[in-house]
Amino acid sequence: MTGQLDQLFVSLKQWLVSFLPQAAQPMAGILLSISAIIGAFATMFAITTIMERKILGRIQNRLGPNRVGPFGLLQPAADGIKMLTKEDIVPFAADKLVHFLAPVVLIIPVALALAMIPYGRNMTAVDLDAGILFFFAVGSATELSVFMAGWSSQNKYSLVGAMRAIAQMISYEMPLVLSTVSVLMMAGTLSLPLIVQAQSGYIYEILPRWNVFTPWGLAGFVLFMIAATAESNRAPFDLPEAESEIIAGYLTEYSGFKYALFFMAEYWGLFAVSGLAVTLFLGGWNAPFPFLQWVPSWAWFFAKLGTIIFGFIWVRGTLPRLRLDQLMNFAWKFLLPMSLINIVVTAMWHFSRVFQFVGAREMRWVLCALVLAIPYFFLGRALGEGRPAKRNYKFAE
Amino acid sequence: MLGTGLIKGMAQTAKNFVGSYQGPERLVTVQYPEERLAPKENARNFPFLVFDGDDAQKGLRCVACQICEKECPPKCIYINKSKDKKPDYIGKPQFYPATFDIDISVCMSCQICVEVCPFDAIKMDKVFELSTTDRFEALLLHKTELAKPNEYFQELHPTEAAEIDTRFAEEKLKAEAKAKADAEAKAKAAAIAAAPKPEPAPVDGSIPTPVAPKTI
Ligand code: SF4
Ligand code: SF4
């Protein structure tokens, strides 16, 4: 029973495909997986938008949307209808073709990236040997679309937003990729399902063997999440869309369905990068405890994904936007050195495996954590240097 | 250390998040169409015309002096002066506006018209549910829609209204006293004028009938 539930979607797909002639089966299987992914994430997009607004409301001691349907749960439908019925405005001076293509160019790599993620046992739409490499390769194509949108709009705000986006995304791509290197070193593979497999099993039969529970994994996870926030243009790294400064950045000239597409693609990008974080650091679809293994694997995956999304929303509700120089300093002076040090720590962790005495694991833990904590402290201090202890706002009093 | 501030902030928002489910008194918003906040005394949006008494058009305080029309920065007031006059609250005959229109789609709620009006005839209203489907005719308010009783004004701006009302009452008393004094003075004058009247000696020796003072 448990196994059946676990493999529900896999068997469903096989059953559906079995009606077709032999030759058409692989193609049909791919199409089915793609439509399942698109359907699932479109739904998830709708749920996330309403949950985000609700949670942000609560964080600010408000109720959030509560008018459309019970508890406001039909709000996404209302938003969707509004988006679809709005006039699609293309600026007179815009480069029409590029302006049109930008949202499409954004959604395709994001959808491709989503196809890489293992959603459950045997549930990877495209199982590539170098899945993570492919993920980052297509992921960096999103920068192109953002710049296309900003450039083709022929609007200074759009262009400023696009420039900011390019600077930010290229800077944060580096720590994002470097923080995953340690996982690849430990797992010894580039294939995402195999990385998940490497995290299965339990220490002392009870503690999960997830990467996040090792010092390098924890540091890598934090670095990865920070870089991922910047990559997906979310607060506090939402400079490219800073509405109080440059209206909506590269989205300024988009309306109607194109805007909705952009919006959805950004959320899909968020899901993809969160899914990758789950896969790399949080054990993918593995259950946290052995006695919870009866819960289907895909449910675990989506539960973890939901938790990460909640974290993103929480951060968005808390932190104010960074300034551009702070953003760059943070990426190059803090995240990059930290992720390089993390690689060294991973090697330390790996080679100290030879110690087999009692308590060796704990000792390695403390040692590696120290090697990370000391540079963290000093790099953090260096970031804050040159900042006045107390600011005097001469004109604000 | 780097990150302590972040954690503090995150803890604060987490407290808000959980707390808003625990204690509804934390929620600062009012569920508008069902619940409303009582308007603040100094709130304002669009002007209206104050009238005294029961008849909206007869009791209008406005004397069509057109100062507000001239001062209104976006020029959204349009006044036509009447040909005839009607008595104001003291009883003095005054002009009144034959037309008084305010285009509230243009009005910027600056309150200048109120400040300049020497007769306290135009005041700021607080109504805000003014949405219509017609952005021309429906937003051009005429004299009939603009006229609102003094009681309404007293409710909106109690302090200011009380001050104006006492001033008006004093002025009225003064005017009445003056009228009375005038009347008396006139009567006296009349009496004096009447007194040396019986100069021509009565032929028949009868006492002349005193001339009754004219009532005003
Ligand atoms: S509202 Fe006041 S200022 Fe305007 S015309 Fe009437 S009396 Fe004059
Ligand atoms: S409030 Fe200002 S803009 Fe509006 S009618 Fe009066 S003077 Fe004109």
Question: How do you describe this structure in short?
Answer:
Chain A has 397 residues and is mostly helical. Chain A has helices spanning 2-6, 8-17, 25-59, 75-85, 96-116, 131-139, 141-152, 156-187, 192-198, 215-231, 243-246, 256-281, 297-318, 324-351, 360-384, and strands at residues 202-203, 207-208. In chain A, helix 14 packs antiparallel against helix 15 (360-384).
What this model shows, in words?
The complex is a heterodimer of chains A (397) and B (216). In chain A, a hairpin with a 3-residue loop joins strand 1 and strand 2 (207-208). Chain A is globular and about 70 Å long. Chain A has a two-stranded antiparallel sheet. Chain A has 15 helices and 2 strands. Chain A is mostly helical. Chain A has 2 domains: 29-85; 89-383, no CATH class. Chain B has a domain at 47-149: Alpha-Beta Plaits (2-Layer Sandwich). In chain B, 36% of the residues lie in helices and 13% in strands. Chain B has helices at residues 4-22, 67-71, 112-116, 143-146, 150-156, 158-194, and strands at 47-51, 77-81, 86-87, 93-94, 97-103, 122-124, 140-141, 147-149. In chain B, strand 3 and strand 4 (93-94) form a beta hairpin. In chain B, helix 5 packs across helix 6 (158-194). Chain B is elongated, with a radius of gyration of 30 Å. The chains are: A mainly alpha (397), B alpha+beta (216). The site of one iron/sulfur cluster (SF4) has 14 residues of chain B, from helix 3.
Quaternary class = heterodimer
User: Beta-strand percentage of chain B?
Assistant: 5-15%
The CATH architecture term of the domain at 47-149 in chain B is: 2-Layer Sandwich
Indicate the percent of residues in helices of chain A: 55-70%
By secondary-structure content and strand pairing, the structural class of chain A works out as mainly alpha
N/C terminus separation of chain B: 91 Å
Using the coordinates shown, work out and report the CATH topology of the domain at 47-149 in chain B.
Alpha-Beta Plaits
**Apparent shape of chain B:** elongated
Total number of strands of chain A = 2
| Model regions low in confidence, pLDDT < 50 over at least 5 residues of chain A | none
Distance between the termini of chain A: 68 Å
Structural class label of chain B: alpha+beta
H-E order of chain A: HHHHHHHHHEEHHHHHH
Mean pLDDT of chain A: 85
Strand count of chain B: 8
Which two protein chains have the largest interface (Cβ within 8 Å of the partner's Cβ), and how many residues from each?
Answer: A-B, 20 and 19 residues
- Helical run tally of chain A: 15
